[in-house]
Amino acid sequence: MFSLHDKNLAKEILSSIKKSDVHLRFMHVCGTHQDTLVKHGLDELLKECGIEIGQGPGCPVCVTTPKEIEEMLLLAQKGITVTTFGDMIRVPGEHYSLQHMKAEGCDVRTVYGIEDAVAFAEKQKDKEVVFMAVGFETTAPSTAAVLLNKPPSNFSVLCCHRLIPPALKALLEMGETRIDGFIEPGHVSTIIGLAPYEFISKKYHVPQVVAGFEPLDLLMAVWMLVQQINKGNHEVQNEYARAVNQKGNMKAQAVMKSVFTVDEKKWRGFPVILESGLLVRNEFEQYDARKKFEDHLSVLTEKEFVEPKDCRCGDVLRGLISSKECPLFGTLCTPEKPVGPCMVSGEGSCKIEFRYQKKR
Fold this sequence. Notes:
Elements: H1 4-19, E1 24-28, H2 31-39, H3 42-47, E2 51-55, H4 60-63, H5 66-77, E3 81-84, H6 86-90, H7 98-103, E4 108-110, H8 114-123, E5 129-135, H9 140-148, E6 155-161, H10 164-174, E7 181-185, H11 186-192, H12 198-204, E8 208-211, H13 215-231, E9 236-238, H14 250-259, E10 260-266, E11 272-280, H15 289-292, H16 294-297, H17 313-317, H18 349-356
Parallel strand pairs: 1-2, 1-7, 3-4, 3-5, 5-6, 7-8, 8-9
Antiparallel strand pairs: 10-11
Helix pairs in contact: 1-13, 2-18, 9-14
């Protein structure tokens, strides 16, 4: 809840933005930012000040591709124990979800983190256990640290980790939608720092602000972007200085670099994005599920995958439409019967909009 002081400060920030008389479109890439914006009605308040904020590809579950989901479904069908986060289990595949496969008798387990999957593998040495490792720079260090610590031989990961800065570059170069500034994710930035964003401002002249997750954090980030634009600046500023520094977490970066290499990666709703994905290094290939179970997964190599019919999650992730503009939103697609991942994940724009629409 807002304290009286916070309310007064929020009013001052909004008043200052409104006096600037701007009409700008910003994008963030963080599900927690989206939740804060919609939960507290900041998106509507900012629209009254000439600011529109959309969510880009900041939901790790949402950007995971149909092929990656089918890989896990196939491994489950082959009798392998598959583990992942609760949201991933409910994402629809081409015909089924992992939740459906579990109901059919496959060994599908929800875990809170990779450590839980390792613990299960240690207890069940007679079973092959695969962990679906999704997420951005925030969760990748945990995956890397586990592999460095030599987990049991019956454990492996299906690596689906992705990197945020290359996706921002892709959005700008695709040029499908106007982006006057980026609000960068606080969690990711605690790991990578500010430096990896700087090429975006220098090359594309787009201002950026790294923001925390409280309502005032987001309002301040918007105010800082507006000030940059009014002054003709385009740089990376740090609103979240209480947690983020210029260099980030050097130890976490070193752990990631020792376990992963960077390569191109497909994202849901996007073409292949260069240097946006993490691959397990050859030194750790015994823990790479794609190599360990290559014979099983080879049938998917040449297969083409498409989005669910009429689902526009891809357009939402690229900032082309809002969730409410999808024809399936709230009718054929609900949290109880989701068609696409944006209605499944707690960080998905559609799920967030649906959750708070009655409050609006």
